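Record 1 of the preview.
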Amino acid sequence: MVNLANSGTPDDCGNIFKKRDAFDFVVTKFLDIENQIIPFFQKYPIRGIKALDYADFVKAADIIKVKGHLTAEGLDQIRKIKAGMNKGRK
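->
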């Protein structure tokens, strides 16, 4: 198990913010998501129900990678993926 709060971020991308009893890991550059975050979590897989959210996150990233988010259809696909993540998952 990898603890991002103690081990640092994958290749020093993004920022970690402490919020009460938890941490937020924020990455704003898409290239960091594509080249560092996704490969990191492929190497160290997320377990449990959050693995499904991660799989959806990768689907959305794949749409963005091919510039699909710049079309109404692609943006709608991303919105549908987002709506089904976390508490929206059935």
